[in-house]
Amino acid sequence: MKLDADIKNQLAQYLELMEGDVLLKVSTGSDSVSEEMTDLVNELASMSSRITVEQASLPRTPSFSVNRPGEDTGITFAGVPLGHEFTSLVLALLQVSGRAPKAEQSVIDRIKGIKGEFQFETYVSLSCHNCPDVVQALNMMSVLNPNITHTMIDGAAFKSEVESKEIMAVPTVHLNGEFFESGRMTVDDILAKLGTSDASEFEDKEPFEVLVVGGGPAGASAAIYSARKGIRTGIVAERFGGQVNDTLGIENFISVKYTEGPKLAASLEEHAKEYNIDIMKAQRVKRLEKKDLIEVELENGAVLKSKTVIVSTGARWRNLGVPGEAEFKNKGVAYCPHCDGPLFAGKHVAVIGGGNSGIEAAIDLAGVAAHVTVFEFMPELKADSVLQDRLNSLPNTTVIKNAQVKEITGTNKVDGIDYIERETGTTQHVELQGVFVQIGLVPNTDWLEGTVERTRMGEIIVDNHGATTLPGVFAAGDCTNSPYKQIIISMGSGATAALGAFDYMIRQ
After folding, report:
1. Is 32 helix (H, G, I), strand (E, B) or coil?
2. CA distances (Å), origin 26, targets 54, 143, 152
3. Among 27, 130, 427, 448, which has the minimal tally of Cβ within 10 Å of its Cβ?
4. Mind listing the UniProt keywords for this protein, alphabetically (predicted)?
């Protein structure tokens, strides 16, 4: 295997940043993946005098570990980390060589303070754009804490292991041999799940003038606009970037021809950090109450106070709400075709939903699956005609319209779908191995029950200043009754809410 010339030139520049020697211990066999891995590590060694390679016996073959000479740092790649995981490899080389990870000191301190033995394993697909965040976070934790180890496992290279553990979604993380979590996670998310955060971190915080709840495009915009007014601003969020992190290609963000969700999310956070904004990540809000000040309670028990609050908690994938969906989540039921599609190579899968997102998912999946069946509740698809034309041109797709999904069937994993032909009322069954749900969004506003007025769909009702029915509380983005759920519209509504909150304060 030879690296692309452009990639090799970029890699050479990164390898010059290595601060110490690195030993790659390689366990390979006679298979094609082993050959590719051998070529990769040898090419790395040829590009830097700081990298040496030696044969070893590791728990998985093919795999290689990244170590300091004489010291096991606990980072292993089982499979060839190319595609989206190539950056994970580069960062591992740099960090193991002694280059400090780019993380806030408070995060580094929390990682170093973790006690106990933690053996993490992350099952990935090299085409998954969410997987590298998890891999890089756990690799960094392994570098910083000798009690933590991490192995990245390419599902395509270890199919039998993935199938035996019935892993049908990536990234999937196991801790000490047991399921830990599935889906995109940042280091803050992992630390929160490990229980390293407590309410004492927030005891000494002075009241804010504007507290933004949610870190997506609307929340970031609201926080930046508020901070630019010179007022005390805070932002509390489960993850910065929100659902944008789960979006692959973005082509309608005006002035930017193309970008990807994780890149935009990182840019939002980077921009916010240019201002005096108190950013509190990996925190979930559970209650809001108006007293002399507005109080926002976090799930860890901490209470933040502010003169005004801007709710920008966004939305999440809408569930079908049928038997089998919850039971088989990550066991054949999935929501991200880009991430999980490769796990269904050569299999029959279904896409639920005939809108743009559903048909785009079906087209994407048709490239890897043996067959894709689209189920649409209405008599006609809602997707743009150009997408329908593309779908109809593919030989391995079927569209079933006027169909009500009744149940997702299976035992330990999905084996089919029962649906009702709405025209006749008869129930039909289709045998398949995967179901991708693409039926829109539901706002993340359950925690506001009885606090502000919402639509029957749960969307927060706001006026043209972004104000809700509770004085001092504003809202923006996909959690509101804005008719269009778009990144650029969310950003504008965040700015509107921030200006509305400022106007509210100066008039009180």
Report:
1. helix
2. 6, 19, 14
3. 427
4. Disulfide bond, FAD, Flavoprotein, NAD, Oxidoreductase, Redox-active center
3-state DSSP call for residue 456? coil
Three-state SS at 373: strand
Domains present along the chain, CATH in parentheses: 5-193 (3.40.30.80), 202-316+445-506 (3.50.50.60), 333-437 (3.50.50.60)
pTM of the model: 0.75
Three-state DSSP at 393 gives coil
Which residue bears the tokens 């502010």?
A: 306
| Per-residue b or e along 74-100, where b marks 16 or more CB atoms closer than 10 Å to that residue's CB | bbbbbbbbebbbbebbbbbbbbbbebe
Three-state SS string across 213-224, please?
ECCCHHHHHHHH
Separation between Cα atoms, residue 466 and residue 475, nearest integer Å:
6
The beta strand positions in 312-392, using DSSP E, are: 315-317, 333-334, 348-352, 371-375
Alpha carbon distance 58, 51 (integer Å) = 19
Q: For residues 31 and 62, is the Cβ–Cβ distance under 8 A?
A: yes
Centre a 10 Å sphere on the Cβ of residue 430 and count the other Cβ atoms it contains.
Answer: 16
Half-sphere CA count of 329, side-chain side, radius 13 A: 13
462-497 pLDDT, tens digit per residue, is 999 999 999 999 999 999 999 988 999 999 999 999
Whether 68 has a pLDDT exceeding 90, the answer reads yes
Q: How many helices (H) and strands (E) does the chain have?
A: 13, 27
Q: How far apart are CA 34 and CA 394, in angstroms?
A: 35
Give pairs for 290-299: CB < 8 Å, separation 24+: 290/470, 290/471, 290/472, 290/473, 293/207, 294/211, 294/472, 294/473, 296/211, 296/213, 296/236, 298/199, 298/202, 298/236
Identify the residue whose tokens are 């980077």: 270
Q: How confident is the model over 234-250, as pLDDT tens digits? A: 999 988 998 888 776 78
d(CA 382, CA 95) in angstroms, rounded, equals 48
Query: Are 393 and 406 in contact, with CB atoms under 8 Å apart?
Result: no
The 10s digit of each residue's pLDDT in 84-141 is: 899 999 999 999 999 999 988 889 999 999 999 999 999 999 988 889 999 999 999 9
CA–CA distance, 192 with 282 (Å, rounded to integer):
6
Place of tokens 């200043």: 465
How many whole angstroms separate alpha carbon 216 and alpha carbon 313?
A: 8
